[in-house]
Amino acid sequence: MSLTQKFPRVELSHLPTPLELLNNVSAEFDTNVWIKRDDCTGLAFGGNKSRQLEFYIGQALEQGADTLLTTGAVQSNHVRMTVAAARKMGLEVEVQLEHRVDRNQPEYHQSGNPYLVRLMGAKIHYYPEGEDEAGADLALERRASELERQGRKAYVIPLSNAHTPYGALGYVDCGEELMSQLNRREIEPTRFIVPSGSASTHTGFLLGVRACGCHAPVHGVCVRRDAQSQKQRVATKLRAVIDTIGSDIDIPDAEIFCDDSMLAPGYGLPNEDTVAAIKYLARREGILLDPTYSGKTFAVLLKLLQGGNYRAQDNLVFLHTGGAASLFAYPELVEQA
Ligand SMILES: Cc1ncc(COP(=O)(O)O)c(C=O)c1O
């Protein structure tokens, strides 16, 4: 039985997502490189957030909400998918776009995710800071109170680590789902490579695979903050998820691995290795990554492969969390690297 069985949930994703071998990459490096296709969850271009939203919206409906409120960067995939999920469930939706990335190019503000948010007709608010999670959440709470005074009932999907991480439950499920796919094919994973942003994905996934008895390293790739801060964030979230689930599983801090080697020059800003990795996977396999999350994560995997550390019997598993809609906000990438 899944650890998340008892929580209210709605169905938003096409599950299970496929597990595929990257044939050309595997042949080039003489090892096995697998890809878990969470870019194919199906909701308005797909991506990891639909698994998380299934649990948030489950709570929202249980509380009788008629409106969803959330916050994120201008090119946030989470914001795009929240709007799509609200539309699917017949809910109103308002989003707050934060000034998190210094990019003035018109495409960054008008194309990709914000284009889709406008297409789906969400009300948009702006927040002038990009590194003020508590303030961004507070602004949502204020808006929720305003709506309440108008007779509406809003549900806030928060950003900061101070809230119950219902979203991570979606990745506990993903870890369990992937382990059953690997077991069925008798694949012994050597290492998992996953992105680590708000940390719901990394935390839930780590718990999900450990709960299935798998002890392979889960290599979290930092996309938002340095490795030390991210490790603390994952540790806090892990305790909160374990408490929420009511599990007695113990995952020592030493098993929380965060790698910030691809973080520079910062959130939403791809470096040369990331651009090269995006082009590499597009040209080798026809698979699209994004400049903020999946591109940085795959760039770390590519460095590991180029280091020549893996053999024919090894199995590296890359969790593709989507995000390719934001490629249209970075038209210059095609000319770079
Ligand atoms: C495409 C994509 N991958 C990965 C992440 C990181 O997931 P998390 O915030 O759960 O760490 C995000 C977050 O917005 C995302 O949009």
Please characterize this protein's 3D structure.
- The protein has 337 residues and is an alpha/beta fold.
- It folds into two domains: 201 residues, Rossmann fold (3-Layer(aba) Sandwich), CATH 3.40.50.1100; 108 residues, Rossmann fold.
- The longest helix is centred in the middle third of the chain and has 19 residues.
- Strands 1-2-10-7-8-9 form a six-stranded mixed sheet, with helices on both faces. It has a four-stranded parallel sheet with strand order 5-4-3-6, sandwiched between helices.
- It contains eleven helices and ten strands.
- The model has no long low-confidence stretch (mean pLDDT 97).
- α3 links the parallel β3 and β4.
- It is globular and about 65 Å long.
- It is 42% helix and 15% strand.
- Pyridoxal-5'-phosphate binds next to α3, β7 and α8.
- The site of pyridoxal-5'-phosphate has 18 residues, from α3, β7 and α8.
Give a brief description.
This protein is an alpha/beta fold. It has eleven helices and ten strands. It starts with 18 loop residues before the first strand and ends in a 17-residue tail after the last strand.
